[in-house]
């Protein structure tokens, strides 16, 4: 590795030309650390100081499946994969303490893309004060995959599980629903030379941006835990599907409020029509807002109450909407 | 997902047919847990009880680069990727407390392969008492990738870093050197209808088995830490390359003992010749034996002393062999 390469001067370099050591020193060295990182990247493992039990989760993104280069920049991908992982920690009532990042890519991959990825990872990691403590690099014959593991802790002292909901609680969402799905739909249609009317163009651009780089308020997880949340999950596969997971784990029924859902869908209706808008709110994934149950009156400021929990009854656990069991969509990586 | 599929009765099923939930309930449910796992797979994150700081490392294997299906079974791949990660923990003086496993594979992948992978993961995880606490599944257009993150603790109370060696220490290896590389060489040659003479066939088979499924004694890491090891690393990229990492981090020179290296190479010489045998010992990766420095007389029983450390001098840090700086090989994922 030449000094010029190490300094990032050769912007046309590929990962194969940089080599493993070059990639590590050139690209990953820019990431910040914290005092809790007793040993950071560069030894056999990282060593992280802890206070109490450790949260651990992992989430990967695969090019062509979880993102398309035509739609998402390297920065977008890095930011999104970190958000996905930190949202899982938030959904337990936790915050991040460390990230491990694995990049699998062909040697022909421009180093500039990996720099962008790192910048995206760093932007979200820095925003939430979470250091990158380690990682791995592997070459492939063409596939590109970014896998992140996030470690965390529970500042509120308790973990909020999917199984903790009780009948008669309010069901609330910490932020938006459907924006990521609406953005994806816009991207799909725009391939066919379609773009929303001028009146909706600004909103559509925001949905697209949210799809490519979601930025949920991850601090709401700790607040929800402190407010006494019964059960919590982040909306990664859609309201109905993720709500169904709370319903299953807590063995109860979750009744969605038809009027509130309609209100949330109204944002998308001018562009996507009534059915499309409802699909976004009910089935749209990758939103990463938090969905939680609370004792009546304990819903934190800024959350939107979208329903109530009830005894499962003879029909068994599930999500109900308009008097029927909702089965709506959501994303299965293996289409099952 | 049908009940028959969940029970694993349909052995011809693909991952796409099983679906994400089916894969999780069918394949990953067989893995064991421990008391320290406060929350295991199935919620947003795992929650792990800890005692002291947490070790964290991650290592991935990619089909076609890190293994070939012609040579390695799914069980081999699962076992090897866990060994690689646990060896990194051992190289710090640590032991495993939890594993996160990510599988990226096409929907057309036979479920039977994923079951084999899980069996391999489970065999090593169980042998060392480490639970699988979480993971992720993603589909691909064909690429197959297994990524593992290992968390650990330090039973000896201290982390052994690469930077802790001092001049005048003994350099020792906890187990074999070169067997994985010798096995790989046999596999490569056997594609050309070659196989060792009958007198060496049994040894050659053992090297091949070690290459496909290395089984280093991972308990030696804690013992080395307790014996006062100065610096430690696991031999994943070859003795010269990994020894060079200790030399660099500790800013000293590592002199290999020519006679001991020759003795270690003698095992491979009848099959691979003098040069090939030396290459295995000096540059052979994926062995995952531990390489450590110790104060004179503190080398643990069963370890092989392969050299000594010395002041770096004007030539700077490095590994020396036969009076010259060794530059020997080792594996760079990006060939740099």
From TrEMBL, chains A, B:
According to the entry, every stretch annotated as the PurM-like N-terminal domain falls at 42-153
Gene (UniProt): thiL
> Which EC number(s) does the record attach to this protein?
2.7.4.16
What organism does this protein naturally occur in?
A: Ornithinimicrobium faecis
Tell me which residues bind ATP: 135-136, 162, 236
Q: Which family does it belong to?
A: Belongs to the thiamine-monophosphate kinase family.
Provide the residue positions that the database annotates as binding Mg(2+) 1. Answer: 58-59, 136
Q: Does the keyword Ribonucleoprotein apply?
A: no
Binding sites annotated in the UniProt record for Mg(2+) 3: 44, 88, 234
Q: Anything else the record notes? A: Reaction mechanism of ThiL seems to utilize a direct, inline transfer of the gamma-phosphate of ATP to TMP rather than a phosphorylated enzyme intermediate.
| Superkingdom field | Bacteria
Which annotated residues bind substrate?
Answer: 66, 286, 331
What does the UniProt keyword field contain?
ATP-binding, Kinase, Magnesium, Metal-binding, Nucleotide-binding, Thiamine biosynthesis, Transferase
Matching entries from Pfam families are given as: AIRS
Can you name this protein? Answer: Thiamine-monophosphate kinase
């Amino acid at each position: 590795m030449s000094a010029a390469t190490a300094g990032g001067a050769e912007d046309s370099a590929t990962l194969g030309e940089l080599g493993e050591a070059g990639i590590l020193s050139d690209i990953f060295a820019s990431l910040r650390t914290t005092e809790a990182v007793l040993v950071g990247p560069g030894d056999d493992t990282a060593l992280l100081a802890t206070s109490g039990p450790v949260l651990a989760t992992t989430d990967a993104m695969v090019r062509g499946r979880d993102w398309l280069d035509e739609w998402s920049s390297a920065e977008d991908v890095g930011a999104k994969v970190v958000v996905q992982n930190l949202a899982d920690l938030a959904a337990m009532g936790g915050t991040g303490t460390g990230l491990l990042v694995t990049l699998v890519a062909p040697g022909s991959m421009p180093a500039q893309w990996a720099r962008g990825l790192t910048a995206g990872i760093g932007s979200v990691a820095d925003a939430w004060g979470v250091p990158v403590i380690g990682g791995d690099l592997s070459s492939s014959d063409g596939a590109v995959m970014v896998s992140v593991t996030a470690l965390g802790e529970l500042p509120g002292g308790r973990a909020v599980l999917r199984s903790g909901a009780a009948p008669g609680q309010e069901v609330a969402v910490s932020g938006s629903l459907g924006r990521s799905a609406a953005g994806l739909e816009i991207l799909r249609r725009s391939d066919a030379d379609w773009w929303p009317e001028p009146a909706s163009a600004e909103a559509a651009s925001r949905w697209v941006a949210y799809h490519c780089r979601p930025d949920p308020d991850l601090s709401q997880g700790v607040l929800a835990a402190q407010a006494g949340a019964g059960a919590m999950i982040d909306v990664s596969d859609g309201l109905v599907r993720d709500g169904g997971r709370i319903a299953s784990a807590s063995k109860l029924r979750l009744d969605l409020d038809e009027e509130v859902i309609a209100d949330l869908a109204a944002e998308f209706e001018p562009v996507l029509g009534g059915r499309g808008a409802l699909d976004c709110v009910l089935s749209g994934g990758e939103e990463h807002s938090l969905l939680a149950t609370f004792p009546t009156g304990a819903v934190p400021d800024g959350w939107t109450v979208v329903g109530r929990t009830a005894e499962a009854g003879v029909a068994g656990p599930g999500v109900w909407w308009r008097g029927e069991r909702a089965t709506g969509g959501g994303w299965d990586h293996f289409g099952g």
